[in-house]
Specification:
By secondary structure, the chain is an alpha/beta fold. The protein contains 12 helices and 8 strands. It has an 8-stranded parallel β-barrel, surrounded by 4 helices. The chain is globular and about 45 Å long.
Length: 283
Amino acid sequence: MNRLRIVAGAILLAAGGSPALDDAPSKVRVGYCGPLRDVGAVKSAGFDYMEVRTSEVAALSDEDYEQLAAKLRRLALPVLAAYWFLPAEVKVTGPDIDVGRQMAYLHKAFDRVSRLGVRVIVFGSSGARQVPEGFPKAEAFQQLVDFGKRAGPEARSRNITIAIEPQRREESNIINTTAEALAWVEAVNDPNVQLMVDYYHFEVEKEDPAILRKVSGHLRHLHMANPDHRVMPLDLGEYNYAPFFAVLRQIRYDRLIGLEASRNDLHADGPKSMALLRRALEQ
């Protein structure tokens, strides 16, 4: 089967196209999440791809955006995913949401990141989704569902999947667990609206890795960091990663993993983290 997929990809490339992510040979790709100023460092550190900040890309002037696109082409650095989806001022919950503003932002942001090659956008955006004090949580959840139903078709038209991120309670007061993220995904009911797991938030919320089995059909992306100070993971013995990776191996996770973590030296720490993640998923 893998050989057939490789041959199919080669045929498509020969025809001038490019294989979709799901048609590529099975191999976890590890990227780095960071600001645009890190593009050169991410390339030189040897990451498989860069995960850019959607709102940063959307805020660029047209001239700066074109320069970014040219630089990425020159570096041959894939940009397969993005995070920091919505800026805080584009509210999606509460009494002051502006649907027109939401959609205008989505059109611009999706157009720009899709041109760079992004196929997955992480929907964290705690500032945008934070429920104002006193506003009914049930109504806020329905607002998020309505937003997902509008965003899904826009994402699909650009070959992008939106992946909701459960976030720790210190950062967001809605959708804090993987089960809550699944409830949102099921309520939106759009193939291009799925979920992701950030290991840092996952551990802070003390989630059971067994939940990954339940959501495996919807899991489209991962973020990783050592939960102790949210730094780059460098050694499998530094933290109790084993239960999490054991379930990932069981469900045969083979999609993207973005390192959203601080580091001392990206050039030195990046290759170590990449090797750690690949080793953990191969055991």
